[in-house]
Amino acid sequence: MVCDSNILIYAAEPGDTLCLPYVERAEAMIASVTRIEVLGFPRFGLLSADQQARLQTIVASTIELPLDEEVIQRAIPLRQQKKMSLGDAIIAATALEYGVPLVTRNVEDFQHITGLDLRNPFAPNA
Question: Longest Cα pair distance anywhere in the chain, in angstroms?
Fold first, then answer.
């Protein structure tokens, strides 16, 4: 499964029980852009040292899938179909290319994508 950036951020919160089990699975993966989104957001420096360390540990311990030509070729038509962020297009394209579910809280951002298996840890039936 590919974990969206928001799943890693929630998983790093103390006491999280919804998202941490997803990122701790052996099959948990992230798109390369997720590392940039999670560790590169402007307010990262405002987090406590403990929060920063938890996020860095989660990112470092999760398999990172490359932004290769196949993922790029899948992301291009996703952005052409509907306005979406570059990061979301790359994350969705990565999940599609590897044929795995995408775990996200923001299912609305991705539900228009045919063939994308979405999992929401916050959904009542998750």
Answer: 40
Level-2 CATH architecture, domain 2-119? 3-Layer(aba) Sandwich (3.40)
Residues 6+ apart with CB under 8 A from 26: none
Q: How far is CA 85 from the centre of its chain?
A: 13
**DSSP category for residue 122:** T
Question: CB atoms < 10 A from the CB of 6, how many?
Answer: 19
| All residues at 6 or more sequence positions from 109 whose CB lies less than 8 Å from its CB, including other chains | 84, 88
Q: How far is CA 32 from the centre of its chain?
A: 9
DSSP one-letter string for 40-80? H-TTGGGS-HHHHHHHHHHHHTSEEE---HHHHHHHHHHHH
Distance in angstroms (rounded) separating the CA atoms of residues 92 and 125: 22
User: In the chain, what are the domain boundaries?
Assistant: 2-119
This prediction has a pTM of 0.92
What's the pLDDT tens digit per position in 60-105? Answer: 999 999 999 999 999 999 999 999 999 999 999 999 999 999 999 9
